[in-house]
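Section 3.1: Structural characterization of target chains.
Under the original work plan, the team committed to producing a structural model for every single-chain target entering the pipeline before any wet-lab resources were allocated. The record below documents one such target. The sequence was received from the expression subgroup and is listed exactly as submitted; it comprises 709 residues.
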Amino acid sequence: MTIPLLFEAGPLTPADLRRFSTLFTKTAFDFFPCDTAQLMPLGEEEGDPPPELQDALIQIRDNHLPVVDGQGLELLLPIWGGETLCGLLVVRGGEEQLYGMPPVWLDEQSHIISREFYLLKQSCQDPATGLVNGFHLRGELEALGQDEADGLPGAPATLALLEVYPRTRDADRSLRYIVRAGSCLASMLGEDMHLHHLGAGIFGLLWYGVDMEQARQLGESLLLRLKRENFVTAHLGITTVTPHDPQESGAPEQLLAQAWQALRTARLRGPFSLCGHVTAQDIESHPFRKTPESVLRKLRALYRGKSRFSLVLLRMDQEPASNHFSKRLRTLLGQEKGLVLVNQREAFLFLDGLDGEAARAWLADFRNKMEGIGGSSFSMGVATFPFHDFKKSALPLNCRKAVQHATFFGPDSLAVFDAVSLNISGDVYYNEGDLVKALGEYRQGLLLEPGNVNILNSMGVANIQLNRPKGARVCFQKALGIEPENFMALFNLGFICLDDNQAPEALALWERALVVDNEHPDLLQHLGMLYCRQGRYAEARAVLERCEELIKKESRPGGEPMVVARWLGRACEALGENGLAIGAYQRAVSGNPRDAGSLSRLGRLYALEKQGHDIALALCGQAVELDGGKADHWYRFALVQAMTQDQEGAMQSLTECLRLEPRQAEAGLLLGRLFEQQARPGKARKLYEKVLRYSPEHAPAQAALAALS
């Protein structure tokens, strides 16, 4: 068994110049007194450099020396990955003395800075997962602050800490759990979102151009996908990366502390939950913020002893620039006691004796009068009493939920509190990661409208993330009883059946869902994976190819490109279409170089197709280093070793394979044949007999045993 830690980072590559551009550029400024420093990766995938640098690049490749333009104050230094030219450092401006230095000195600096970049890369690599670590994340956070300090416009960004904690009995299993989590996350997120491992199953994500609301949506999708990959728990803490002074002590640490505090709260919310860091401003602007006690006292005095009334929350659609809104209200309503101002944007209106319909009519006339006065538009949320079993004390909050409901109709709208309002308020809590509160809202909504399919689906999804599959199953089954072809109920119920070892039922549900929507990438991906597991490879290939098409078009969100490519490779491999399978595995590995399964299968196919046994051995060897706990990886490694006449290595790999999975018939058969080649028929016989004990109908083992008789 190999140690599941990688301490060798490998030589610099063109991709590293992009991946570590922040730290490398900062290092370049430490080396050279210049105005600008630009890293330019060179490689097949990078495209040609700008035309003005073409001649200089030819000189560098011919002479292996830097190129200096003394008049233009420009210096081009080659960046070396071992003996390979992987990029250029283009230095411009600064001290003129730099551009008059001897070529020998500049060449020495080129190799020194290349070495420095390599050491930085090594220091940024996490040995357990091969991902970048906290040192790299801290550098990226510092760089965000530097942009703001330099007066550059700062795009929104969020920092997320994701905990996928392994609850295992020993360090070996714990590390393998973390490695699997890193590989899954890399496949889900792709190369564009730098994934960091900070240690102990804590992953750091820095999402550029993403605000808190978008980050919560991404986080929700990520948690749901991790659950589908059979992880036990996952929690996410998110904070907005606000502008900060990079010279200020602890600025990145403060951001990390905020995300950590949010992560601690997320742990209390359920097995798959998230939490965003909350500021005082967030609390004040929350759609269901607490109504001030002074306002509540006035409202209680208004509806004390009243048996029928409506309470209305009026809220300006824009932030107030003055007290004009409150003046309009006072002008129109005079000294009427039913008006209670909350602030310059909000006010409550008490309508004694009016039910919902009567309140609507009264408010329509009221709005016309307000428009006659002029001013900004406003929305209204109405809550009535009596209504179901809601107490009078619940009405101010119900009004806020109704106003949130009204926002779905645009500005200048009105909504009366009902089941849909509770569905919307539940979604607000769900998006914030507070699943328990969300579930409470959905339950109340179902009491008001038991046949609301949207609420049933929302309640089912919340139950899934709270690890309550029975409750989720009931919700989706009820939804399908009302709408038999409801896509979300069919899709989600399929996952519950799959988790319950009911693959045929899951397949039937997803095939029904496919009739409803045959262009949903997530459905196509998971249906293709299930077809593969069921041995229906031709159908799997068709579905997965369609999924790849949709993902490339980016016409609809969803689907994980590397995962789709991996399973498409398996389908093509099973169908004997090795060329297509190799292409699919190459796509999977290019997006996630630590995908052990794809590396192993790709190595086997390279060997079979005679595309380079050395490459095949390297790929299969890398797979067992990354994930040595999978018997199949060791078997494929042994196959390639046997093809290269490395009998001793193949026998060691097969022994490890059978230790992990004693019932692996193909491994037992191959090891028996190797024993035969070594003229050890007794050991071969025992292996064939063992294979037949586990698989009595295994024809190759029967034939091999008969040949020894």
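DSSP finds 30 helices and 14 strands in the chain.
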